[in-house]
Amino acid sequence: MARYTESVCKLCRREGEKLFLKGERCFTPKCAFERRAYAPGQHGRFSQNRRRRESDYSRQLRAKQKAKRIYGVLEKQFRRYFSLAQKRRGLTGVNLLQILESRLYNVVYRMGFAANRAQARQIVSHGHIIVNGRKTNIPSMILQEGDELSVREESRKNGLFKDLAETAEKATCALWIDRDVKKLSGRILRDPERGEIDGNLNEQLIVEYYSR
User: Fold this and answer.
1) In a 10 Å sphere around its CB, with 0-12 CB exposed, 13-18 middle and 19+ buried, how is residue 129 labelled?
2) Do residues 129 and 179 share a domain?
3) Residues forming beta bridges with residue 139, ordered by sequence position
4) Could you list the residue range(s) of the whole structural domain that residue 94 is in?
5) What is the pLDDT of residues 46-74, one digit of tens each?
6) pTM of the prediction?
7) What is the pLDDT of residues 135-160, one digit of tens each?
8) Across the strands, what pairs with 178?
9) Residues 94, 108: one domain?
10) What value does the mean pLDDT of the chain take?
11) Cα(102)–Cα(117) distance, rounded to whole angstroms?
């Protein structure tokens, strides 16, 4: 399975804003964006001082790239999700964001069972999650209304999960998920509404990008 393996801090610097890809570290002075708030590369420091009019294509591309980087999805898969969103009823942009939010590892993150999406992906890949009574290790699995998931009983002895209930209690759970912290489980109540998804994402520009 292809995935991005370089420094994720470069992604924040390229987008010119924090994408919070490293969880708690992003809120500390150790955050690379705090120390180097300019694009990566040998010309990054100088390019920020250049003033040039941003084209429509550039804005569309940046909106698409930002969404990909926040959710940790590569181009081929992202384009496939867009095609799937077009086939659904409703607004294509909102459908796309709902699909991205419904991916298994993102749901684990939204439940507060991981500090960031990268950790949630690892938890799923290592087989610590059960979906509808069956063990799964597919982070990209798309969940639907009524699906139930929980941490495997055997995995709860793992050091990572010993204090998870206490940690998760402090984390906010998405409103479209019914979470039981004590049982380390949850259930999908419905599709997330647009107001419950990252407001910094501009789905209309993404639609315009793929509609060129």
Assistant:
1) buried
2) yes
3) none
4) 55-102+197-212
5) 555 555 677 999 899 989 999 998 898 99
6) 0.80
7) 999 999 999 999 999 999 999 888 77
8) 187
9) no
10) 84
11) 13
CA distance 140 to 68: 13
Please identify, among 28, 47, 66, the residue that sits at the C-terminal boundary of a domain: 47
| Residue that is written with structure tokens 């999908």 in the block | 188
**Side-chain half-sphere exposure of 88, counting CA atoms within 13 A:** 17
CB count in 10 Å sphere of residue 16: 13
In order of 179, 186, 192, the CA distances from 153 in angstroms are: 17, 14, 28
Note the helical H segments in 74-210: 75-87, 92-101, 104-110, 117-125, 159-162, 164-170, 203-210
Instruction: Specify whether the CB–CB gap between 123 and 108 falls below 8 A.
Output: yes
Contact (CB, 8 A) for 63 and 202: yes
Residue type, 208: E
Contact (Cβ atoms closer than 8 angstroms) between residue 9 and residue 22: yes
Number of domains in the chain: 3
